[in-house]
Structures are given as C-alpha cells and as structure tokens.
Specification:
Structural class: alpha/beta
Number of strands: 10
CATH topology: TIM Barrel
Largest sheet: 10 strands, mixed
Distance between the termini: 11 Å
Mean pLDDT: 93
Order of helices and strands: HHEHEEHHEHEHEEHEHEHEH
CATH class: Alpha Beta
Length: about 270
C-alpha cells in the first residue's frame, strides 16, 4: 500500500502534530483556523487557539478590537451578546470590565471561566509555540476596530508582524502599509474586475477571494501576478468536496472552521504515485 494511503487510513490514531507535519510536506495548500475554531472550544478563545496550534494550522485567524481604554482585544462581533455573558458594544468597556466577562457562552461549565483574550496574550501563546516547534504558526489578522500603529507594535514585540497577514477594508490596509511597509496585505476580491485597482493601490501579498467567484482562470491570473489566492470555505462550503475542489484549483490557503477535517480529506485526496 502507498505510504500516503496508510497515513490516510490511520489518521485518527496519529497525533495532531504528526498529522500536521505530514500534511505540510505533502499537501500544497495552507490552513487558517477561522476565529481559531477547532470544534472543541469557544471561538476566539485561548483554549481554541491552543488546540489550533496542536492541530498544526498555518494561521490562526483572530478579530482585533479596541477597548474603551485602548487595549487590543479579540472578539468577532462588535457587541458582546452572542459569545459572552455581557451586553452591548465592547468598545464601551474598559479592559478590566471586559475581563470580568465569560467568553464561554454556550459551551457549558467547562468553559465558563474562559475570558476574552488580549492581543498580547495571543501573541505570547503563538510566540512560545513557535520557539519550541519547527512547524510555525502565524496570525491571520482581521482588523475589525483597531488603529494600525498599536496593532503593528504589538505584533513586532513578539516577532510576528512580518509573517502574519492582514485583512481589512482597503482604506485601513492602505494606512497599515504606510505604518508598516512590509505588511502582508490581504484585501478582499469579489470578482476579476477588482484586480487591477487593488494591485495598484495596495500591492497585496494575497487576495481573500470570494469562493463563488473562483475559477481556474482567475487563480492562474492572480498567480501570474505573483499574488497568492486565499479563500474562506465557511458555512455550507465547509465540507470535504470543497476542500478537494480548492486543492484542484491550486488555491494557496483555505480558511475553515474544521481544520482536522481539511487535513484528513486532503491527505486522502493526494494521488498515489
């Protein structure tokens, strides 16, 4: 039996770190864990970020916001209601007030003490991991409500700025590039018609490309310009058939809520030589 087929058959008994090593060596596509999701712990929590590192993703996507007293925190929604036991806009609370809340809403007693993380805590966690492991993980930064300067300063403090990728509005990314010229910008791309203007304005590292707009021709055109193709495969698209299609299309990275399923599916999809 081909060695890759053996790996695929016994994937469920392989340690996550071993699976990640095999995946990174054999599969020409990267994985970003959307909000750090692993299916095991609350989104955008330190618990799920730790699990994502153990699974071996290339990037952990986080949503950065700013508290009333200028601290950078991690929460997807502008309001606290959906994922915490708090209420109202997070930007109206100080960091001390934010830390009194539980970020484990809906996950039972095991996660009721989970807190909304600070960006610094996330940087510390990933920096420690990268110092001890050959397979590095970086940050896919969704710049929700944050100024470029403090964001870049925090990432630089932990040697994460240059390898992380930045997603946000075109105007924000333009300001970020002024603050940090080496930033790997990742603007959205809804269709082919946006390519020229976004390249001229932003000189992107990658395009966060609408999954429904992706064709082999679009991927080829973007690659010919020296730009990577990233895409979210979330919600109804977060399934094995999508991952297989992404691999055939030659996409560079997929963002998912199911990183382990991506690894299992694509290891099985590698052709036998």
């Amino acid at each position: 039996m081909n060695i890759l087929a053996i790996f695929a058959c016994y994937l469920h008994v392989i340690a996550p770190s071993d699976t990640a090593t095999i995946f990174r060596k054999q599969v020409p596509i990267q994985i970003s864990a959307h909000r750090g999701n692993t299916g095991w712990a609350p989104e955008n929590s330190m618990a799920t970020f730790q699990k994502a590192l153990e699974i071996g993703v290339n990037f952990i996507e986080i949503d950065v916001r700013t508290s009333a007293d200028g601290q950078l925190v991690i929460l997807h929604d502008g309001n606290l209601d959906r994922t915490t036991n708090g209420h109202g806009p997070i930007k109206q609370l100080t960091f001390t007030e934010i830390r009194k809340l539980s970020a484990g809403k809906g996950y039972g007693p095991a996660f009721e003490k989970e807190k909304i993380p600070s960006l610094e805590e996330v940087c510390q966690l990933i920096s420690r991991w990268n110092k001890k492991h050959p397979q590095k993980t970086f940050i896919y930064v969704d710049c929700k409500d944050v100024a470029p300067k403090p964001l870049v300063e925090m990432l630089k403090k932990y040697a994460l700025a240059e390898e992380s990728c930045f997603y946000g509005s075109d105007s924000f990314l333009e300001n970020l590039k002024t603050e940090f010229p080496a930033a790997k910008l990742m603007p959205s791309l809804k269709n082919k018609g946006e390519i020229e203007s976004k390249i001229e304005r932003l000189q992107p590292y990658a395009f966060d490309t609408n999954w429904l707009a992706i064709t082999p021709e679009l991927v080829q055109e973007i690659h010919q310009r020296g730009i990577k193709v990233f895409s979210d495969v979330l919600g109804p698209f977060d399934q094995s058939s999508t991952y297989q299609k992404a691999l055939k299309l030659g996409i560079d990275l997929i963002q998912t809520d199911k990183p382990r399923l991506v690894q299992k599916t694509l290891l099985q999809a590698i052709p036998v030589n």
